[in-house]
Structure formats: structure tokens, C-alpha cells
Amino acid sequence: MTSYGDKYVVNETYRSSSDPEKDEFQTWLNGPIDTGIRNSGGIRSINNPSTGKREFLVFYSDSSSSQTQNPWEDVINMSDGVAHYWGDAKAKHRPNPDSATGNNWVKTDYIETYAQGNRTDAPPVLLFEQPESGKVIFRGVCVITDLRIERHKDEGEMAVNYLIELAILDTDTASLEWIHRKARTGVDQGGPDAWNQWVTEGRIQRYSIYKDNIRTKDSQYPDGQEKELLDDIRGRLDGPNKGVQLEYLIKYLLEQLPTFTNIELTPSSGDRGVDLTGSIDLLADSHLSDTKTTVDFKAQVKNTGSSISGKELSRLASRIDDGEIGLFFTTSHFTHSAQKENSTTYPVRLFAAADLVELLLQTELVENHRLGDDIVSDIKEST
């Protein structure tokens, strides 16, 4: 009797073999399903045996040395949770890329489900990569974010093909029980949290190799003499205007850092989650005549003793335009879930109490682990 495992683990390598007793790819995916994937090209499907509906798309990317390296090779970027996957069309399919069976599946599913916002019927994409013959790496559970027609050369001839953009979801495993149940019955239960969240809310949380860089609550607070500075900030920038007072302190802080320019406070009314704006010069010590070297930022500041949640980060993120980044400064800490959500979803950099203190100690705004009296006076007068 053929056996299979209980889950695929992202970035783990599995054996691909024609012997079902040794195979950990096709045999595991199919399990008890009679209409599972076959050895038939890069794009495959797992169909519900009763309805014929495609419950899963399986993308198989060949990155082995035996594969001819072409301008259309797939790109799998685990650090950003993005993959660009070329469809199955060859020169012989020109001018219609849909004549390649896998391409037709993807186009149909994309138009009828993904593009329509019909997420409950959209088939998840299981992404695999072959680094060498006989081995596959599981790269994750994905959703399709874009589908467009591109052209490339296929052995010297022009080919019209689909370039499929995927978001690799923030999950470390995919349960084979989930795959087999959904494929056999159409019931979507037991899937990864990131997949369930996309289905119910439409929000994409991308995988990131940096996602484990999540700090504990204690590590986000200063200790020793540095704690004295945090206590001083909280004690002297207090009262009804404590939030605005900290905004001024952050403005003074950023103005002392050489890479920050054009820093401005937003009007206190109607800021909608943005307290400061400005630019960061990526090449502060160099000059280019025709290339912009700055990145604009929008910042939010919270003078609070309470934790910062993902909801507050999403509020700032919603105000960030393409090409900008967000900065969030607080005298407290960010929750574990907020950090995790931010690392995979938002272009926001987080500065907790310990970070704020460390930055201030590198400026002339602090004397003997206390804010300078003249700085505090200026802030009080301005607010």
C-alpha cells in the first residue's frame, strides 16, 4: 500500500520518483484522489472527481541545470513572497496561448474567480520547484494576483505566452488532509490561516524569509540608564497634548539625522493617520544629476503606554502611496500579531520605545539621559 506524509513544509525538499512507494510529489498530492495530477507539463490541476471542478492548480517550475536558461525562466522570490511564473505556451501555440492546456485552465480560473473577487471558488496554487532531477522543493500556497500576455523566444521562434504573477502566502506548511479533502469533496477546511484570511477578507499576507524577526514585548523597551530617558519623555511630554508633543520631538529627531529632509508636521485636524511627512536620501553623500535618490515617507507617532495593534499599522499603510514607505514611532511596543502582519503585508518600519531612545541618544537633544530643557520648552511653546 502506498503511503504519503501529512503535510508539505515550505522550502523543504521532497523526492520525485516514478515509483509510487518512493514518490513524495505526485503520489502524496494525489493520495486517495483518482483525478489527481499527472506528469503532463508545468501547470497541472487536481480536480474534484464528482464535479470536475479544479480544486487546486499545481505549478511546477524547473530550475535544474539541465533546463535551458532562457529569458522567460520563472522567478521565485521568497524574501518578498512573490513569484513570476511563465505559462506552458510554446512557439507552436502561437498566436493563441490558450491552446496550451495549462494556460487555458489558468485563464479560465483567473477570469471566473480571481478577477471577479469570487474567492471561495478560486483554486489555490501549490508551487513546486525542481532544483535537480528527482527532487522538488515546496515553495508554498499561492494566489494569482495578475495574468498578462508576454512574448519571448522559444528555440529561436517567437512565442506568445502568459506571465502569471503569484503572491506566496504567509504559511509554513500545507496539510495533505486539507488538499485531499478539498479535492475529493470541494469542502475547504483545514487550510493555512493565510489562505483562509484571503478567502474571507481578501487580504494577502505574503511569505517572507524575514518574518521570524519578531521581537518580544520586553525587547522593545530600554533598560538600565536608557530606561531613564523613556521615563523622562513620558513624564515631561504629558497631558492633553502629549501626542502632539511627541510628534514635535520626532520631527526634531529626524531633522538631526543626515539622511532625512523636507520634514513637515501634518495639520492636527484631518491627518487621517499621518503625523509627519518627508524624504529619506538613499545616497546622502553622493549626487546624481538625472536619477532621484530619495524615498518619500509618511510617519505616525503614538505617545502611549498601550501596545500598538495591526489595526493601527493598517491605518498608516492605507495612506502610503506607491514608492513611499511608512514609519511608525511609539513610546510603547508592537504586538506579536501586528509585527507578523506588518512583515508580510505593509511597507512600514516599526520603531518601538527602545528604538526611539537609542536614536535620541545619538543626537544633541539629550543630556545625561534626559531631554534637554530647551527642547522641552520649545515643544511646550509649539503645542
In short:
The protein has 383 residues and is an alpha+beta fold. The chain contains ten helices and 17 strands. It has helices at residues 26-30, 101-114, 176-185, 193-201, 225-236, 242-255, 310-317, 336-345, 353-360, 373-382; strands at 7-9, 13-15, 43-47, 54-62, 75-77, 82-86, 125-132, 135-154, 157-168, 173-175, 260-265, 276-281, 294-302, 325-330, 348-351, 366-367, 370-371.
Structural notes for this entry:
This protein is α+β, with helices and mostly antiparallel strands. The protein folds into 2 domains: 7-201, PUA domain-like (Roll); 218-382, Trna Endonuclease, Chain: A, domain 1. Helices cover 26% and strands 28% of the residues. It is built from 10 helices and 17 strands. It has helices at 26-30, 101-114, 176-185, 193-201, 225-236, 242-255, 310-317, 336-345, 353-360, 373-382, and strands at 7-9, 13-15, 43-47, 54-62, 75-77, 82-86, 125-132, 135-154, 157-168, 173-175, 260-265, 276-281, 294-302, 325-330, 348-351, 366-367, 370-371. Strands 2, 3, 4, 5, 6, 7, 8 and 9 form an 8-stranded mixed sheet that branches. The protein has a 5-stranded mixed sheet with strand order 11-12-13-14-15. A two-stranded antiparallel sheet has the order 1-10. Strand 7 and strand 8 form a beta hairpin. The model has no long low-confidence stretch (mean pLDDT 88).
